[in-house]
Amino acid sequence: MHICRALLAHGYSLFSLTILNYVNISNCSTDEAKTKILQCEQFFIDTLLPKYNIASTAGSLLGFKHTEKSKALISIVIKGKIHTEETIAKISIAKSGKNNHWYGKTGEKNPFYSKTYSAETKAKN
Fold it and tell me: CB 8: neighbour CB atoms within 10 A?
């Protein structure tokens, strides 16, 4: 939003888009590519100290603060969201199997590792 407001206030002609660096990720795994990209981004954040960057840490909102007005708007939006049964079913299907972010993760990477459901929780299902 900061950049949008600045563009509207000052005009597009005062801004430019320049590619500062190309990160070759063609032979990298997804995790390696993400690490390389975030390291490069952090270098430029630290070096250039960009005025319109909302976060001081690449890939993180650490240090970012919502205004009270933003918090109120987010609260209103979240409270107003009620999904129909059909929408809930579609979301469930869309996040099942390989689309689930925990799919295929085993051992210590799984937050449920070495834990079991309580009898009370099992009874709910």
Answer: 9
User: Quick check: 45 and 56 in contact, CB under 8 A?
Assistant: yes
Q: Which residues of 95-114 are buried (b: 16+ CB within 10 A; e: fewer)?
A: eeeeeeeeeeeeeeeeeeee
Contacts of residue 57, Cβ cutoff 8 Å, sequence gap at least 6: 42, 45, 63
The full set of domain ranges for the chain reads 2-97
| Token pair for 42 | 């952090």
| 65-80 confidence digits (pLDDT tens) | 888 999 988 888 888 7
The model scores a pTM over 0.70: no
pLDDT in tens, 44-70: 999 998 887 777 888 887 777 888 999
The helix/strand/coil state of 123 is helix
